[in-house]
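The data layer described in this paper is built around a simple, fixed record for each protein. Because each token names a local backbone shape, the row as a whole describes the fold. We quote a single record here, exactly as it is kept in our systems:

***
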Amino acid sequence: MNDQIKKIQDTIEPLRQQIIGHKVYSAITSIDDLSVFMNYHIYAVWDFMSLLKALQQNLTCTTVPWFPVGSGNTRYLINEIVTGEESDTDINGARKSHYEMYLEAMQQCGAEPVAFMDFMSALQSTGDLNAAFAVSAIPDAARGFVDYTFEVIASRQPHLQAAVFTFGREDLIPNMFHSIVNDLNSKFPTQVSLFKYYLDRHIEVDGDHHSHLALQMTAELCGTDIQKWDEITAASIIALQKRIALWDGIYEEIISKRVLEESSVTAEKLA
């Protein structure tokens, strides 16, 4: 393994452990709890795709007339990842992006993404991220997460984008969460099967093949430039802190909803 990659992994390991052991996972005990999780997490799924396309735009030629950009190795690495993320196969064998699979999983379990779709509609019509934030009920924790991702995108620095993509993203979901989803699926297969499939594909594609490609891409972009390695370490730390804040926001909403429901039941019994 590249020595600089190992150094970054050692530096961010305490933050990774905070995420992997976060209390939000054990708080998910029902379909309603899972719906709360998904209505926050969908923002991370979507901005992951945005970060991926920013990398592709910076590392390859996506305009006409075509000219070679960068090294053939980084072009291969990013295009390979884009193919898997943007046109994987869904549970029925149809080609879809992981984002589209996630939305279908939300619809199946009743986690209607009203606020998210309002945000997407506003963003498509205005092209302005802040304007879309202003007219949609995006949770604060999700907004903070998206804000940082687009700050990194706006930097137009491929090594920073690669760092956040590689060290701050979806390989952080632990086995415990998969066990919870498997348990919910065994009880409610008509509501959770698509989300279970999404996670299974995530493990198979993102957690193994794509993570190795992303590490190679990051090492290729930084080379022997110590300043770049320092910069991506700092960016990775912030990305993980934003993930912790996102998970904190989900946990707080799940618990708040539970307290309100329990209070409502108690009030009904006393009435």
The first helix runs from residue 3 to 20. The radius of gyration is 19 Å. Residues 28 and 213 are 32 Å apart (CA to CA). The longest strand covers residues 88-89.
